[in-house]
Amino acid sequence: MNAHVRPRILQSFAADAFAPQTFKVYTPRDLDRIEQIARLPEDMRFAMQVVATVLPFRVNQYVIDELIDWDHVPDDPMFQLTFPQQGMLESRHFDLIADLIRGQASPELMQEAVAQVRADLNPHPAGQLELNMPMDAQGNRLEGIQHKYRETVLFFPSQGQTCHAYCTFCFRWAQFVGDKALRIASSESAALLNYLRQHPEVTDLLVTGGDPMVMKTKHLAAYLEPLLAPEFDHVQTLRIGTKALSFWPHRFLGGEDAEDLLRLLERLQQGGKHVALMAHFNHWRELETPAVREAIRRLRDTGVQIRCQGPLIAHINDDPQIWSRMWNTQVHLGLVPYYMFVERDTGSRNYFEVPLVKAWEIYRQAVQQVSGLGRTARGPSMSASPGKVEIQGVTQVAGEDVFVLRFIQARNPEWVQQPFFARFDPEATWFDQLRPAFGAEKFFFEA
Ligand SMILES: *Cc1c(COP(=O)(O)O)cnc(C)c1O
Ligand code: SF4
């Protein structure tokens, strides 16, 4: 398709509104240097410091100035999305670290306590580290490659294993806190290409992180451009997971590297690949700034498709109005709603989790308020070890209350789209808490 004949649905802004911006980032050490934070009460700032000692924290000036509504802190969803809150740690963990900070504990003591708390937080949910990591012919693990579903390979480029800001609920938090043993990454374009060459069943490559859009364009190009060669014709779709539209839309606006990136995406697209940006959004607010709107416009002009996904999170978006407005906005901007995820069982799960029954009600109520084009979002979906399990609903069968479930994606393709039932449990928040309905011992896929 010729990009230039597509009608522009978004207003254009004066070019200088999007002159190159400097990326200004804050880490735990800089908390007090954030003006808006310095004005908050002392006990709140101390609590933030405690939590940021255990969990990753990183925010930037764009998020601070354009996403967070400081008049509504601490309840503001964008504040909850990026800034540590006391409730994110269980009180026994919180008190342990707080006492060490107050007592000015030695760095060794502190490190030991922090490591212990982190180990308690299920740093690698669903066996991410052990499972799905393929071996080469010599039996070596291929670092940074995951192949769980036949047609889709996940690739974790080493330069893309960070983000422009960190989500407080991040299920990949473990790799951001500096524990190298927990990091999944590859710096090897050759290993990726070899693997894809040997696996003609792979149609989709999903480049993920972290956020691959933190990478310099030339690094991204080194991984992706070789795929235009005829031997990789079976790899039809290149997906790039990103939260840059939300956390740093200037990645697509300012300066030469942004322009190079847009041209790279265009070349891949024109070279015959379907290029999809898998954009992570949690709230419609992230789609309202002039910068994100201009970034979306420029990206769509390259011919790439933008699909949207994000988890359902207490304190941030556990409200059907937020989802229906977000999906409506996405459709209006030409984006495609794709997934609503259930938050994984890791990190600060107690703070963020939403019972499965409530997740389904939120999904249902939200979907009722959007047109068919907004109903392309599947969910609520749990990425569990056998596959992606969707909660289709709660109903009664033969007098028993049950969850109706199905695999959207599964380790074994045969399992996909077979409805199955779990005993209704109003408190369950994750797949491993569900038991088969009707007195069965096992789910069908556990046989
Ligand atoms: C979600 C997911 C994919 C992509 O699945 P699609 O159904 O193709 O979107 C691939 N690998 C893993 C491990 C995933 O969780
Ligand atoms: S953008 Fe994704 S990987 Fe990055 S912090 Fe948020 S959830 Fe984690």
Compact summary:
The protein is an alpha/beta fold and 447 residues long. Helices cover 31% and strands 17% of the residues.
What overall form do the CA principal axes indicate? globular
Strand order within the widest beta sheet: 3-4-5-6-7-8-9-10-11-12-13
Structural class: alpha/beta
Distance between the termini: 48 Å
Element string (H = helix, E = strand): EHHEHHHHEEHHEHEHHEHEHEHHEEEE
Helical coverage, percent range: 25-40%
How would you describe what is shown here?
There is one protein chain. With 447 residues, the protein is of the alpha/beta class. Among the domains are: 6-119, no CATH class; 315-447, no CATH class. It is built from 15 helices and 13 strands. The strands form 2 sheets. The protein has an 11-stranded mixed sheet. The protein binds pyridoxal-5'-phosphate (PLP) and iron/sulfur cluster.
Summarize the topology:
Layout: E1 25-26, H1 35-38, H2 42-54, E2 59-60, H3 61-67, H4 77-82, H5 91-102, H6 107-119, E3 145-149, E4 152-155, H7 173-176, H8 189-198, E5 204-207, H9 217-224, E6 237-242, H10 244-247, H11 255-270, E7 274-280, H12 290-301, E8 305-312, H13 320-332, E9 336-342, H14 349-352, H15 356-368, E10 378-383, E11 387-397, E12 400-410, E13 420-423
Parallel strand pairs: 4-5, 5-6, 6-7, 7-8, 8-9, 9-10
Antiparallel strand pairs: 1-2, 3-4, 10-11, 11-12, 12-13
Bound molecules: pyridoxal-5'-phosphate (PLP) and iron/sulfur cluster.
Pyridoxal-5'-phosphate (PLP) binds next to strand 3, strand 4 and strand 5.
